[in-house]
Amino acid sequence: MTVEKESTRTAAVVVQQSSRTAGRVLLSGGTVVALILLVLFFFLMRPDSFLSFVNVRNILYQVSILAIIAGAQTIVMVVGDFDLSVGATSSLAGSVAAALMLDEHSVGVAILAGLAVGLAVGLVNGVLIAYLNLSAFVATLATMTSVIGLAYLVTAGTTLFGMPPEFTQLGQGRLLTIPMPVYFAIAISLVIWAMLRFTTVGRRWHAIGGNVEVARLSGVNVRFARLLAFTLAGFVSAIGGILLAARLGSASAEQGGDNMMFSVAAVFLGMTVIRSGAANLGGTMIGVAIIGVMSNGLNILGVNAYVQQVVTGLIIIAAVTLSSLKTRER
Amino acid sequence: MTVEKESTRTAAVVVQQSSRTAGRVLLSGGTVVALILLVLFFFLMRPDSFLSFVNVRNILYQVSILAIIAGAQTIVMVVGDFDLSVGATSSLAGSVAAALMLDEHSVGVAILAGLAVGLAVGLVNGVLIAYLNLSAFVATLATMTSVIGLAYLVTAGTTLFGMPPEFTQLGQGRLLTIPMPVYFAIAISLVIWAMLRFTTVGRRWHAIGGNVEVARLSGVNVRFARLLAFTLAGFVSAIGGILLAARLGSASAEQGGDNMMFSVAAVFLGMTVIRSGAANLGGTMIGVAIIGVMSNGLNILGVNAYVQQVVTGLIIIAAVTLSSLKTRER
Amino acid sequence: MTLAEGRPEVAASVSSTAPALEAVDIVKSFDGVHALKGVRLSVAPGEIHALLGENGAGKSTLIKIVTGLYAPDSGEIRREGHAVGFANVRAAHHAGIVALYQELSIVPTISVAENVLLGEQLPGRAGIVDGRALRRRAKEQLERLNQRISLRKLAGDLSPVQQTMVAVARALATDARVLILDEPTASLTDTEIREVFAVLRSLRNEGVAIVYVSHRLEEVFELCDRLTIMRNGETIVTKDVADTTIDEVISTMVGRSAGSLYPERGTATTDVVLTAEHLEGRRVKDVSFTAHAGEVLGIGGLAGSGRSELLRLLAGAQHYRSGTVTVDGAPLRRRSPVGRVLDAGVALVPEERRSQGVMLGASIQDNVALANIATISRAGWVSGSRIAQIAKHGMADLQIKARSARQPVGELSGGNQQKVVLAKMLARRPKVLLMDEPTRGIDVGTKAEIYRLIRELADSGTAVIAVSSELPELIGMSDRILIMHEGSIAGEVPADGADEELLLSYAYGRSHEHEQAE
Amino acid sequence: SGGDSGGGTGDGDEALKVIAFTSGNQTPVGAWWVKAVQEKADELGWDLTMIQGDFDFQKMNPAVESAIGQGADVILDGYTDVSSIGSIVTAAQDAGIPIFSIDAGTEPSDAFAVNITTDQQQIVDQTVEALDESVGGLDGKTVMVIGHDPHAGIRMRAGLAVEALEEAGATVVGGEPQQVTSPATGRTEALNFVSDYLSANPDGLDAVWAGWDDAALGAAQGLAEGGSSAKVTGVDALSESIAAIEADGNMLATIEQPWPSILDQLVELVQAYEADGTLPDENFVAVDATLVTKDNAAEITPSDKLG
Ligand SMILES: Nc1ncnc2c1ncn2[C@@H]1O[C@H](COP(=O)(O)OP(=O)(O)OP(=O)(O)O)[C@@H](O)[C@H]1O
Ligand SMILES: Nc1ncnc2c1ncn2[C@@H]1O[C@H](COP(=O)(O)OP(=O)(O)OP(=O)(O)O)[C@@H](O)[C@H]1O
Ligand SMILES: [Mg+2]
Ligand SMILES: [Mg+2]
């Protein structure tokens, strides 16, 4: 993050310049190496089933919502911030959409309302952070708290269910035997990737994340760009939440809760993939894949859920440490 | 956080210098004002009960463990970092202590073991962050995950109970009608406060948090000081967790979970209290008080639990925004 | 202390002792840029030794090597005759070598007293700081500098001058036997400079070896015993101050006939492109001037005279309190952001390349594209081919040496980094190009290229306004020169045939004498 | 137990002072209980202090204890496991106030004057029998058990289910219950357990036994998506699971726990204590629950529609 980048700027450059050996280039792929090792390990343990079409599809299905929310997190982290409210926002959006459908509103209206809710939460985050200069951590922590509360109010604390099949098909339908959310995740990831890479606003975000002062002196409207990043993150989180509701056929206030931590972890894992150490969508997807493969593989091996948790933390540390060797001072 | 501090350092200093008016001094107390307003509001709503001795004692009892864990968080945040693992560490320490007592070990041994566990987790965090240069966020996120897993393993996923009364007395006993944890919280807060303020290591932490590069170039051993901060935070979290187990007469893997978010929120609230905008123990305690008063007051008013959550987020935003007006550019 | 204050005695004692600090044949390169090419420096106990040289000569790098911040590629550091090597700043501290680094000042969030004693063993016992002793010691240090700054204040609340004095006090508070000060007085006023000098003299008399880096030669001649001049990473000469003159030093420092470096001057037009009227900033006071199409307007002055701020005000990077800026006859709105000013045709190549000019982690083409988002995009979508094109043009026009347009800027040499900043702004085809220290940290060959570029731009009708601290450069590249002194324009001189001495005298605010003399 | 023989208010003039608390007020049943107790209090003229803990014992326990400090005649505990309220139990015993509880642990405990809950063994027997019937005998079949150890009831019945299933000759996946780590994401976790298992072992599951309905619904979805016709049973009788049972999918059965009648039973015991200080004879009462299948689904009031 910017923290270290700024403070040890001189040192970082020295290190970058003084030592670029082949070994380091290899290490820079530490996270990718970690993913490959994981896949190999599980494949060797379960050669017949782990890499089967059915199981790969299964993994893709399982990570599709996380991929979308991690995409939202990537946008914000490209700009050098955090968004702790992505999970809560997704739950609220799913709950609002579900509640409206149960209240006899059309699927279209309900989805639009859910998306609008996400947009609104993102906008609030953006205003608090870009214009009122609150720290991203405290602002999104606060909105997260309020938004979870709102989600409880919308669901009255229960699990909403019984949405029309046109809706649940979005999450459970299949095309060529592949579940719909996988397509959505791919499409949204591609859009975010293209947006970050090929649009003017994407360039501005990168510039702000790279060096906010350089960006400002190059004519970038920093505040507006940050506002936009948070707003978009809210919107994308809402898509994730609505899809999750469709996928589960139900909506509750905290069903997207764990996506927040996992999304941050995925982006951090992905940041180690590229040389500049910035958040990037490709890396995020590798992070998502690591999380998905880890959980599926450990499940298939029948590893106890608690041991799984211990191992998850260790693998994250191992992957990041592996990669951080190359950028010691960053 | 350091992000903004570093990048707009010059600007911040300039702004600080150019405008120090009376109005600003008043605003700088925004968080204190927020606390006073909250207390006043609840007092007016429930004049007979809110400020009664019994209820004030009750609030103190309720926030005492959070106060200890927020103290741990303060240490780390003085240095300019985060520790997301404080809650998990406290749960693990409490669980280990409880498990040992149920396993017929003496109370003393069990407590020492719990403290050692906290120290160890803190040490791991410190090494990962100070020596392996992992970002504090990702390192403590990973240890948090692993540590929760360990706590589940230690408790076998259940709630351990039936610890000897010598132990539970630490959490439930009273002295002059005031529950013991209140004394512990006060004592630990005083120690941390004094440590941050009067000891050489405390002063170094402040220097590192203020400008890590200047500190390093002035000969401060930055790595060791950061290691120490994380280690101590782990240790103090363990005290909190052991007391929580004594206080509840039980230990489970997630019973300290929400203390993490609340501790960060409390420190952030407290950072707005002083001019330099640094984490500080006095401010943290005001943050803890806001959280405690808010929750107790809303309960006394019988506000719906979900509405409480919405309001909690709003109050945090209001308090921080109020104070941030003074330090626009920090 | 039996030694009387004064130079001769000290100089005598110098010759009889082993050097307190010696740097022998130090070589250091940063990925292709040879910062130091075999530097020698020898400082005796009880002397103040000036280290002089142009920007980028390698002075700061040498200091960082001596104090363990960088490792030298080759060469040796000797402390009292013994070879030493420090792994970090603390190790150097332990050996009695302490530096006050350039542009590094205070920790804003802690008290003045703590800043003064930062990095020192704090007074007290068993790890408990004795606050009263801390403040007493800090107070003593500040009193030596005649500073009456409240010790409990946050250092961030001090004025810039006070902050610098606190930083100086910190360096002086160490019981260092070798004290290195890298441009400590750059942002100080005369009064403070006096106080600093008094302390340095008394330290010298106590036998401390002092290395003093400064661009203010008058100071050097007043304070120092000996001087070492560096140029392009080499030591040229070490002399007793008494045996030389400012003129000799300047010509040694510059080391070449300036003429050949600079292209022929063009013919400036009289079309006014930019007018500044009564600009007031933080330091800038009532500045008015005009810039014409096709001219290179140089701005000179001492460090801290407000040149950079003036450019920042013009570029919208900082808002002016009052005054007007007019570009091509159209007044700019006050508080216009950089983007708006850029659109009006005014582009800034900022002073601090690393923190303001380039994104080190991003590629050349991404850096160039940043200021040209409108040209490289249609309907919000960026065209990869346009970026490649714009980057290719820039790289060709400016002869940027790089593997490809996708190479990260952080891997380029300083000169090429600077060219990337230029390419970024030139692609905007600005009517007015503001350049702050356009050649800082750039080697001689590259400098000539940049001067040529500046001239080409001017010839194509751009108004170039360039700030420079190097007088030969200022004279060589400009058509007309404005000299700033304490925020105002102290004088205007046509560059052709301008005399360095005259410029310097304006810069020092002694304009009257010279005007009368002429 | 700590009941004092002279307890109760006896004279009947003063209102009975009751402290009621629940940590589970964020669940549908917990929310119903809060309302139902308030209604009883209004009806019977109790002086009621209701404390809702939001699953946060740090917040709830001190609140309850300070209420105890102010004096009370009776304490009601709704759905809060005995292991989490050690400090409340101590305070109540010190003050000589009996605790009457609903579903506060699965085993007899001296902490309570009485704890009425459903009979976990009977729940397991009914659900396992239903599975047995639907798969045509469990012998040699593979069954996944989904549990959540932090919940005492679920933990106990999941353990009993493993025993019962193995006794019936079935193989339990992994030999132990699969653990959901967070109730908030229980449905997704259960879904993943099942789909991961099925993708590694197509047609490898004959049935899933889930400790509560949310997980059961996730498991049912995982089975449906994996193209399996295996059946699932849950516990809770949520309206969603009842609907799923009626829809004739993978969801086979659930368990209705008769909370309203349990509360009535509890109130009777409180009234007996109020009248003359008699404490219940037994401090643990396990009542029978009802198996909900397609046959009786229409007659069952879902637990989330109680209030
Ligand atoms: N960290 C670095 N990475 C790459 N090049 C560097 C680095 N530090 C210095 N240089 C280069 O080394 C050369 C010497 O720089 P140095 O800072 O020592 O000059 P200086 O004499 O102190 O100049 P000034 O008078 O401007 O302070 C310059 O060309 C500079 O660009
Ligand atoms: N990036 C910046 N942000 C905020 N203020 C700045 C910045 N750069 C310069 N200033 C302010 O402008 C004032 C004038 O200094 P300035 O840098 O303009 O002098 P200068 O003549 O260019 O000297 P130098 O040789 O040091 O660049 C200083 O007080 C400084 O605080
Ligand atoms: Mg220098
Ligand atoms: Mg300047």
Give a verbal description of the structure.
Chain C: InterPro entries: AAA+_ATPase, ABC_carbohydrate_import_ATPase, ABC_transporter-like_ATP-bd, ABC_transporter-like_CS, P-loop_NTPase. Chain C: This is Sugar ABC transporter ATP-binding protein. Chain C: Keywords: ATP-binding, Cell membrane, Coiled coil, Membrane, Nucleotide-binding, Repeat, Sugar transport, Translocase, Transport. The complex is a heterotetramer, with two copies of chain A (330 residues), one copy of chain C (518 residues) and one copy of chain D (307 residues). Chain A contains 16 helices and four strands. By secondary structure, chain A is mainly alpha-helical. Chain A has one domain (30-329): ABC transporter involved in vitamin B12 uptake, BtuC. In chain A, the strands form two sheets. Chain A has a two-stranded antiparallel ribbon. In chain A, strands 2-3 form a two-stranded antiparallel sheet. By secondary structure, chain C is an alpha/beta fold. Chain C has three domains: 21-258, P-loop containing nucleotide triphosphate hydrolases (Rossmann fold), CATH 3.40.50; 272-345 and 430-517, Rossmann fold (3-Layer(aba) Sandwich); 358-420, no CATH class. Chain C is 35% helix and 25% strand. The longest helix of chain C is centred in the middle third of the chain and has 16 residues, at 190-205. Residues 1-15 and 513-518 of chain C have low confidence and may be disordered. Chain D has 307 residues and is of the alpha/beta class. Chain D is built from nine helices and 13 strands. Chain D has helices at residues 28-44, 57-69, 86-95, 120-134, 152-167, 186-200, 213-225, 239-246, 259-276; strands spanning 17-22, 47-52, 74-78, 99-102, 114-118, 142-147, 171-172, 178-179, 207-210, 231-233, 251-256, 284-287, 290-292. Chain D is elongated. Chains in contact: A-B, A-C, A-D, B-C, B-D. Chains A and B meet through helix 1, helix 8, helix 14 and helix 16 of A and helix 1, helix 8, helix 14 and helix 16 of B. Bound molecules: adenosine-5'-triphosphate (2 copies) and magnesium ion (2 copies).
